[in-house]
Design goal:
By secondary structure, the chain is mostly beta strands. It has strands at about 5-10, 10-15, 30-35, 40-45, 50-55, 60-65, 70-75, 80-85, 90-95, 100-105, 110-115, 115, 120, 130, 135-140, 160-165, 170-175, 180-185, 195-200, 210-215, 220-230, 240, 245-250, 255-260, 265-270, 275-280, 285-290, 295-300. A hairpin with a 2-residue loop joins strand 12 (about 115) and strand 13. The chain is globular, with a radius of gyration of 18 Å. The structure holds magnesium ion (MG). Magnesium ion (MG) binds near residues 126, 184, 237 and 238.
Length: about 300
């Protein structure tokens, strides 16, 4: 096994006693790889026994495998951001440059699943989650077309929104459009709830830094949308849910663990701002964390709700 670059046994911060049952006191935070610009789109590929992640400004997708470290998997990535797998195991990616949702077929070919709504270009799909019924949910803020760093400056044609794409019917629907900057998203374990981060304009006077929660009904009809939790410091760029319904969110000082009621249970302190994260490993009990330009991981005493 390759030596880890760094281990830290003191990364956990307990805010509620129940957090102690979700962590392992002898499992340190590990620094797995570095030398990137900005990590995104972490997704565990169980059948490949590896992690895929984006080095977004460098327009490349990286692979990390235990004992081997990080290597280039695909370039260009079309400035891909969030990623997930569909019910058939195919990789679903949000592309800033193509302003589209992409699917990687089994032979490696790329299919554009959605790039327009009502005849207008999407902005820059940011993050994606696939539901049990196969529907592909994604957020579409303007972050990827606001600078040349993460895709390229382009004119926005659409208000930021949350979308649901049905690949069987080839239908793209706006599920909610009362967002300034929808970002990370994840379902509760029974998929009756959908958590969506609102990060608005972080350069504005009153930056939005909270997670909303929606009820998910028949054919993806949403209800509610109230503020579930305000992140501080920083904001929620990406989030994932464990099998008990706890929410693991990126934040300005690391990863925050929230109870299903929205209370802060504890933190994993990371020295850099966290972009995104995912559960992985054969037991889904290892949390992989994108800490700005560095890849971290820590074993937890829980498992990711999504089975890959
Ligand atoms: Mg994001």
């Amino acid at each position: 096994m390759a030596a880890q670059l760094l281990v830290d046994y003191d990364a956990f911060e307990i805010a509620d006693p129940s957090f102690a049952r979700l962590i392992l006191e002898n499992a340190p935070l590990e620094r797995l790889a570095e030398g990137f610009r900005w990590l995104e789109g972490l997704v565990w590929m169980g059948d490949w026994n590896c992690l895929l992640f984006q080095d977004l400004p460098n327009d490349r997708t990286m692979m990390w495998r235990d004992g081997e470290g990080a290597s280039l998997w695909r370039s260009p990535s079309h400035f891909a951001n969030g990623q997930a797998r569909d019910r058939q195991g195919r990789l679903i990616s949000c592309s800033h440059r193509l302003r589209a949702i992409l699917r990687t077929e089994y032979d490696g070919a790329l299919t554009v699943l959605a790039d327009r709504h009502d005849g207008k270009r999407l902005n820059s799909p940011n993050d994606v989650a696939v539901a049990a019924d196969g529907a592909i949910w994604f957020t579409d803020p303007v972050y990827g077309i606001s600078s040349d760093y993460e895709g390229g400056v382009r004119q926005s044609e659409k208000k930021p929104a949350l979308y649901r794409f049905d690949p069987r019917q080839n239908v793209l629907q706006a599920a909610a459009s009362d967002f300034d900057g929808p970002n990370g998203l994840a379902f509760s374990p029974d998929q009756s709830l959908l958590y969506v981060a609102e990060t608005g304009d972080q350069t504005g006077r009153d930056p939005k830094q909270y997670i909303r929660v929606f009820g998910v009904g028949e054919k993806g009809a949403l209800s509610g949308g109230d503020i579930f939790h305000r992140i501080a410091p920083g904001y929620c760029d990406g989030l994932k849910v464990d099998v008990s319904g706890n929410i693991w969110s990126s934040a300005g000082d690391g990863v925050h663990c929230l109870s299903p009621r929205g209370e802060l249970l504890g933190k994993i302190r990371i020295p850099y701002r966290v972009s995104n994260l995912c559960f992985g490993g054969p037991a889904r009990n290892r949390l992989f964390i994108g800490g700005s330009h560095t890849l971290y991981a820590v074993y937890l005493n829980t498992r990711g709700a999504v089975a890959y």
